[in-house]
Amino acid sequence: MESKKIVLLEGDGIGPEISEAVRYILEAAGARIEWLPCVAGENAVREFGVPLPQETLTAIRECGVALKGPIATAVGLENGQVKGFRSVNVQLRQELDLFANVRPLRSIPEIKTRYENVDLVVIRENTEGLYSGLELEVTPGVVTSLKVATKKACTRIAEFAFAYAEKHGRRRVTGVHKANIMKLSDGLALECYRAVANQHPAIQYDERIIDAMAMALVLDPTPFDVLVMENLYGDILSDLGAGLIGGLGLAPSANIGFTAAVFEAVHGSAPDIAGKGIANPTALLLSAVEMLRHLSLEEPAQRITSALTRTIAVESARTKDLGGSASTMQFAQEVVKRLDE
Ligand code: NAI
Predict the structure, then answer these.
(1) Range(s) within the chain of domains with CATH label 3.40.718.10
(2) Which of 50, 55, 209, 332 is most buried, judging by how many CB atoms fall within 10 Å of its CB?
């Protein structure tokens, strides 16, 4: 079988450590992948002077698929000036029109959390909302951020969510919004969600206001299924969801467009533990599993998932964030040991 060419962006902070572990496991599982390493983030600034070089974008366009480690983004202002470069993550999503961010949030039986059987999918619109980057200082001390909603983007994310629900045997889609306050922007989103829902009568559709949704998820996430929402709400609720299944170290994600897909962990570059070799590679590994499934490489995807579950069941094999003492590479070796069990 011919190997698949995949762009690898190791990313910043813990990115190189967890990428190495994931590559090692994929190779051991027999996934025939030819990695094409490219740079983005701090490495790219050092090498090319920009955080997202054209060479990287072209490589992803040509391959169609990338696995990406976390990339750091500076926060806010410093001496009144915007700090650092614009988020590479947001730029990538916008440049490649990766309009759907898919975050499956499934309980891992061996990880003890408040709820068992969490099985949610957050589908987040990835290209507009308050992430449009349109911020303006009206006058000193007064700034504004523009929230953008278009019929095109709201409709295609709803179509994606319903198609996803049908393809994965799911029964219910919940539209999450704040249309009681943002009557125009979230109002438009709801109109689009409802129009698409009408074309999918076999899937139950309902709506929740974002704040009430956050509380409902904390009280009992188990009745929910697929959740569709605009950018910021999706960002926040998917982290909340990661908390429900045991933390950021366990939550995968996929950014999907019509011509390219970029798979990455939900978590960031974890500068507090970078370089120590103790990061948990599970979220990036689960993202890589989603990538293998996207490429129809079901056999290695299944082997890895099963070995991972059995590894996490052994407390001493876990990384520190899950109460163990294994290093990133020791954890990866434990997974590899169980691939053939
Ligand atoms: P973070 O997710 O990097 O870290 C939050 C906490 O979780 C830290 O205590 C960290 O040590 C821990 N953590 C995260 N991933 C872990 C892992 N794999 N194993 C063990 N512990 C882990 O969030 P933070 O600190 O807010 O952001 C750091 C940087 O990452 C920022 O520059 C931010 O912009 C960027 N970021 C990038 C993302 C991406 O590339 N998609 C997503 C989120 C943040």
Answers:
(1) 1-98+257-341, 102-248
(2) 332
